[in-house]
């Protein structure tokens, strides 16, 4: 006997939790499609040379082998599990360039794998739910504003309070140039400033001093990182710091444009925040992070940005893009562990048809098929045991309603329907009840 | 520059094909949920000892390694990608036994991986869409009849002609016992008989003779394998062969029960076929295969059966089950390559809002949001280029309708909607048009 054990870093949910995760994935997908994003799915596996094309060769990549190594083709070790959906997107777009229509708006909801150390409490297998738009030569700035609009709609539909923080790489780089921090020092300094939320101003100042920055410069770097608000306040605060530089100016105008385009979002759900950095080398313009104000410890649950040259390693075309990604597994895991989501439905079944006797099975099957044809997920209890036990089964599984067909006569079409949460019980013609359900509209699938 | 190339055996679809695959996956999931199956998702990775618990250690399993081998924990090589969803189900049920409610009806739609030789034209990464029911101690036979009912509904909704072939392991084993073929020879003989469709009667007879079977026995084995029909014909044909044995009798009764329960299915969609074998050691009762009569070369696209002891390696409980699995990737790949499905929609967008000028962008955005609130997937063309070019973009992407807001006046609410397939163009109040769409019901998402 082999006792099965969980594998650290590879989360699995109970059926109730999986229904809740599925609800989140479905909501993201629904909204993505509403905005015209089309599904793409890439293989879980990429050539190592593709994953490494950006120079990102590190210990986090899982490669493939074969159990019977003598049977393994040499090339197996050239394959590895993808660690995000962005590199695969770049490869896919380059590979299928001739058959894609630009601007190419795609969503991709898949698992990715990273060989993280389990003790860091990070997942080694997790879902990402990404959208990206790629255009030829030039990508209108309106798409930079579409990203927060889409994400806001996803989180609103999920009933989660959120705040999208927007910044611009050129504002940061331009400001550092204006401060005399140049070249490689810019990225090194930004990497330290990125820790501001976690370690505080004093520690970051110390680290910046270690890079050789003067005290006055350090203060301005830190003051800059603490600027946040809507566009007018941010413009004013930068002016007060006395910073001016062409790239800074250009980035700031783009930020103001995005801010204006998103005027319809609830005031608290969007903020320009010069403290976010997204230190990935491929971001070149607008950058995003999303926090849940009630769960600050979670950090960003949805991040992204604009990139001018994602596909440059694979194709000789200018294909600028902008994208954003929800880190689904970490988010739902936290919603479960914090008790924010405590799903009680263990199955999608909406109605359990009670089986009063073996003789009634034919009628029960007929009733169940009528419910299903009306789009109502239905189970028939499998054995004619004590009715209370059948109802208890529904109750324990979180099935909202039970239907007693024991008064069912085909000529009268009468059934009893009991709503378990309220105890309300009605005797009704099945045809009438089905019509009522249909008029009420499909219930939202919130488990 | 790194030219991206496909990886043999790891299929990827164009956006139009992916939409079609997604439609198939959604249809399966919708029907599975209608019958009360709940989603389960297991990690892509299992311990090798779990995958090998049934003794199935073969070259088909992909193990994990690390790119930087010095950083790899020893245990990485103990993990491998799952090769089906059945072993993971057994492990999941044993691991979560205490928190599951039985009968446990679950569906699982995930990718699996097998290290097949690419030259065989088989996929090394593919989707399976499974349902299984597991019960404690005893599983009512009605679930054996539910499998074909569910699968019939999936294929009917997909508009694919299908035929479900049902057999019973005990009928085969009992009949072979009655013929004096005993012990290990039963499986060896069945393995040869399983090739009947492919290689023909003469070749199989030769192989059976090689196993030492007498000519009269061989003839009866082959006659048995060629029996097919609904229950009465099959019972009669077995009687005519003069075969009688307790297990054969029991199996036959169960087959007749399943056949009777499925009387509501179209006559041609179900057949008892004593020629199917499903030589996997864990099937013990009813077995299923599904063929598409218009695509006989495809073989079975959906197979399964009943098993008495799937979880025996992991838990000391009696948990009989029955399940069935659609081989999604092979099926859709064939539908594409045979031209049966030739998807022309490249995105889920239902309406493209034309952008007549930069000044109209605000109105266009407002119109788009109203469409989305009505559940209509909508894009706004990103740049105010020539209108014909905008319409051509919609046409090439397969977007069914374009909406011209250039006559839009907020007080009149007037828009023009053009249906590209027919050329029909209407000038209508947006509010009215949205109400019409809503009354017409959501269009089926067949891409």
Task: Please characterize this protein's 3D structure.
The structure is a homodimer of 447-residue chains. The first copy, chain A, is of the alpha+beta class. Chain A is 37% helix and 19% strand. Chain A has helices spanning 15-34, 48-51, 86-95, 142-157, 169-178, 184-193, 196-199, 201-210, 215-225, 231-241, 246-261, 328-337, 361-373, 387-397, 430-439; strands at 38-39, 45-47, 62-66, 79-81, 104-113, 125-134, 163-168, 228-229, 270-273, 286-291, 302-307, 321-327, 351-353, 378-380, 401-404, 414-419, 425-429. In chain A, the strands form three sheets. In chain A, strands 1-5-6-12-11-10-7-9-8 form a nine-stranded mixed sheet. Chain A has a five-stranded mixed sheet with strand order 14-13-15-16-17. Chain A has a two-stranded antiparallel ribbon with strand order 2-4. In chain A, a hairpin with a 5-residue loop joins β16 and β17 (425-429). In chain A, α1 (15-34) packs antiparallel against α4, α1 packs across α12 and α5 (169-178) runs antiparallel to α11 (246-261). Chain A is elongated. The first copy, chain A, starts with 14 loop residues before the first helix and ends in an 8-residue tail after the last helix. β3 (62-66) of chain A pairs antiparallel with β3 (62-66) of chain B.
């Amino acid at each position: 006997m082999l006792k099965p054990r969980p594998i650290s870093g590879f989360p699995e949910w109970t059926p109730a939790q999986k229904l809740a995760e599925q609800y989140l994935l479905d909501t993201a997908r629904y909204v993505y499609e509403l905005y015209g994003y089309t599904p793409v799915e890439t293989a879980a596996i990429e050539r190592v040379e593709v994953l490494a094309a950006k120079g990102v060769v590190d210990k986090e990549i899982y490669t493939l082998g074969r159990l019977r190594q003598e049977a393994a083709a040499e090339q197996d070790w050239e394959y590895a599990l993808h660690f995000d959906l962005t590199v695969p997107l770049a490869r896919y777009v380059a590979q299928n360039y001739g058959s894609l229509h630009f601007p190419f708006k795609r969503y991709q909801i898949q698992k990715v794998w990273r060989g993280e150390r389990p003790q860091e409490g990070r997942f080694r297998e997790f879902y990402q739910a990404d959208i990206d738009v790629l255009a030829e030569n030039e990508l209108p700035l309106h798409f930079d504003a579409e990203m927060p609009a889409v994400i806001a709609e996803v989180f609103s539909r999920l009933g989660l309070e959120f705040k999208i923080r927007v910044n611009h790489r050129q504002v940061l780089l331009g400001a550092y140039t204006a401060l005399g921090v140049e070249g490689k020092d810019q990225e090194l300094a930004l990497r330290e400033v990125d820790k501001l939320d976690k370690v505080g101003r004093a520690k970051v100042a110390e680290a910046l001093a270690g890079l050789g920055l003067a005290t006055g410069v350090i203060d301005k770097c830190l003051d800059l990182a603490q600027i946040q608000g809507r566009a007018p306040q941010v413009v004013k605060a930068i002016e007060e710091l006395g910073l001016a530089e062409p790239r800074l100016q250009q980035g700031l105008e783009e930020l103001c444009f995005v801010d204006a385009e998103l005027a319809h979002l609830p005031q608290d759900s969007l903020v320009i925040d010069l403290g976010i950095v997204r230190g990935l080398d491929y971001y070149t313009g607008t950058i995003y992070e999303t926090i849940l104000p009630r769960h600050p410890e979670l950090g960003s649950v949805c991040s992204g940005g604009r990139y001018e040259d994602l596909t440059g390693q694979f194709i000789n075309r200018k294909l600028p893009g902008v994208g954003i990604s929800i880190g689904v597994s970490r988010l739902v895991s936290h919603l479960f562990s914090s008790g924010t989501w405590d799903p009680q439905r263990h199955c999608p079944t909406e109605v359990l048809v009670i089986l009063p006797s073996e003789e009634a099975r034919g009628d029960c099957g007929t009733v169940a098929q009528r419910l299903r044809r009306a789009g109502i997920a239905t189970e028939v209890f499998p054995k004619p045991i004590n009715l209370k036990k059948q109802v208890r089964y529904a109750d324990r599984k979180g099935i909202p309603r039970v239907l007693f067909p024991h008064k069912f006569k085909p000529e009268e079409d009468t059934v009893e329907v009991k709503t378990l949460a309220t105890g309300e019980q009605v005797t009704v013609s099945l045809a009438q009840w089905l019509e009522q359900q249909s008029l009420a509209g499909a219930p939202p699938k919130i488990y």
